[in-house]
Request: fold
Amino acid sequence: MRDEELDDVFQALAHRSRREILDILKSEPGTSVGNVCRHFETSRIAVLKHLRVLEGCGLVVSVKEGRTKRLYFNAVPIQLIHERWTTEYSELWASRLTALKYRVETANEEETT
Reply:
């Protein structure tokens, strides 16, 4: 991945609404633009601008079906970023440490309740 493409992905992920759109598309693959718009209080035009940014960096893929545009989350750009800075060894330990962190936090929450 070129540095310019990397910048585009990070810039797209920097906005909360765009991350929310990706969450929607991850949980509802193939959803329509109209359905995505229903999740936001902003205008349809604002949501379409966010979608254009996400499509431009490859995080969203759209397929036209008649008059409906179906949207899909594409995790490949994020995976490429992940692979750039991690190795198999560090990934193993990072996942184990993350699991340990959640177990400790859960145990602390249970103790306080």
